[in-house]
TrEMBL record:
Keywords: Heme, Iron, Membrane, Metal-binding, Monooxygenase, Oxidoreductase, Transmembrane, Transmembrane helix. The chain crosses the membrane at residues 6-25. InterPro entries: Cyt_P450, Cyt_P450_CS, Cyt_P450_E_grp-I, Cyt_P450_sf. Its cofactor is heme. GO terms for molecular function: ent-kaurenoic acid monooxygenase activity; heme binding; iron ion binding. This is Ent-kaurenoic acid oxidase.
Length: 494
């Protein structure tokens, strides 16, 4: 055989072997998760479980670290058609994406068929006893406990003066600081507010340390669960340990104060409520339950508010016509105010009709939480397909919020799209839906409204890099964290 012909044979064998190896690797997840379903595998949604162990995570991370995160879901649509439901392998589990309003609604509102299905890596970071992982019965009990102190009318009214005081002070301070990272400063402000509500804390050193650890924690939540030095998940796990140690010391201190009768009854925060609650059988919450609930609330309560407030401010400044309309509404609120009234009332906040549309449009366009996780408790039929028991379901909010059939020109910021428009069930899900609707949604909107009220009356935002690209993990934000100057423009507020 000639040397040239021999090399052709060798190369053919090598490439043939590589092709066979690739085919085998692509079949591993099928053997592990689909073949065992028997006949039910033929009722699965279209899709691809990807490579073993990694699944579709590389393509997810690649898309969301690019300037076009929606290319990830678009690949499924282009390859398998607009079915609105696709199988995949995500965060270590065989999974199903649901991307249509009706499918999202059915999954989120059916507690008999679905339970929380967050990846075990996320549960380890956020906590086994937090809202993301506890049972329906436990969730109902804790929600009853925490709803009034967080979202109740009396509580919201009581929080307004503290929120106002900090917003006014921070805006004045930022206007003297020159260039700032606006998003970073906003997150510090919203963290200060949530710390006060839950722990009555205003210690700058404690807040700075905790806020830094929460930032690290968030980067690990949507990263690959590689618990080795240098990886985001490893750093997040270390941050969680520090957070738990801090909260444990606070719990111990509060328990001692209760034991000695030294608690201030007039200044009762969420930590005090959690320490004192008992169920119908007289059972109190364990330290782990209290710490995980506090850890989760503090994280969700400042991250979402800080980011959405930042984006609402950016969008308004980029659209002078919308900014002017929102500003005029706030000026009218001040003009109608009785001369004896100092500061905002909850009634006034609830009269901010146009500002509410600005906030809703920001929530839709940014979609702070792009997905939530559920697990099928039983085989479940949906859209002609079967979601097998034990498989995860990723309710993909982002696709719903950016669907041009629901929201024309979906990537355009337009608060007026909400004029005389009531979204149908499943089409607007910034806080989720069903029994596990975000328990702090009213508090978040209150914080955002108060900040925008004072910003619109007296300030403007001048960005250093208005064309700055966006990042999408762990949350949508400008790459430079919105480097800008806050300029004072008038003194119309009372």
């Amino acid at each position: 055989m000639e040397v040239g012909s021999m090399w052709v044979v060798v190369l053919a064998v090598i490439f043939g072997g590589l092709g066979a190896g690739k085919w085998i690797l692509k079949k591993v997840n099928w053997w592990l998760y689909e073949a065992q379903l028997g006949e039910k595998q033929y009722l699965l949604p279209p899709g691809d479980l990807g490579w073993p162990f990694i699944g579709n995570m590389w393509s997810f991370l690649r898309a969301f670290k690019s300037s076009d995160p929606d290319s990830f879901m678009r690949t499924f649509v282009n390859k398998y058609g607009p079915t609105g439901i696709y199988k995949a392998f995500m965060f270590g589990n065989p999974s199903v994406f649901v991307t249509t309003p009706e499918a999202c609604r059915r999954v989120l509102c059916n507690d008999d068929a679905f339970k929380p299905g967050w990846p075990i890596s996320t549960v380890k970071l956020v906590g086994r006893k937090s809202f993301v992982s506890i049972s329906y019965e436990e969730h109902k009990r804790l929600r009853r406990l925490t709803s009034a102190p967080v979202n109740g009318h009396e509580a919201l009214s009581a929080y307004i003066p503290y929120i106002e005081e900090n917003v006014i002070a921070m805006l004045a301070k930022w206007s003297t600081m020159g260039k700032i990272e606006f998003l970073t400063q906003m997150r510090k402000l919203t963290f200060r507010i949530i710390m006060y509500i839950f722990l009555s804390s205003e210690s700058e050193l404690v807040m700075e340390a905790l806020e830094k650890d929460y930032t690290t924690l968030n980067y690990g939540v949507r990263a690959l669960a590689i618990n080795l030095p240098g990886f985001a998940y490893y750093k997040a796990f270390k941050a969680r340990k520090r957070l738990v140690a801090t909260f444990q010391s606070i719990v111990d201190e509060r328990r001692n104060l209760r034991k000695n009768g030294a608690l201030n009854a007039k200044k009762k925060d969420m930590m005090d409520s959690l320490l004192g609650v008992e169920d119908e059988n007289g059972r109190k919450l364990t330290d782990e339950e209290i710490i995980d609930v506090i850890l989760m609330y503090l994280n969700a309560g400042h991250e979402s508010s800080g980011h959405i407030t930042t984006w609402a401010t950016i969008f308004l400044q980029e659209h002078p016509e919308f900014l002017q309309k929102a500003k005029e509404e706030q000026e009218q609120i001040v003009k109608r105010r009785p001369p004896t009234q100092k500061g905002l009332s909850l009634k006034e906040v609830r009269e901010m009709d146009y500002l509410s549309k600005v906030i809703d449009e920001t929530l839709r366009l940014i979609t702070f939480s792009l997905t939530v996780f559920r697990e099928a408790k039983t085989d479940f039929s949906i859209n002609g397909y079967t979601i097998p028991k034990g498989w995860r379901v990723l309710v993909w909010f982002r696709t719903v919020h950016l669907d041009p059939e629901i929201y024309p020109n979906p990537k355009e910021f337009n608060p007026s799209r909400w004029d005389n428009y009531t979204p149908k069930a499943g089409t607007f899900l910034p806080f989720g839906a069903g029994s596990r609707l975000c328990p702090g949604n009213d508090l978040a909107k209150l914080e955002i409204s108060i900040f925008l009220h004072y910003f619109l009356l007296d300030y403007r935002l001048e960005r250093e890099n208005p064309e700055c690209l966006w990042m999408f993990l762990p949350h949508t934000r400008p790459k430079d964290n919105c480097v800008a100057r806050i300029k004072k423009v008038s003194s119309t507020s009372a």
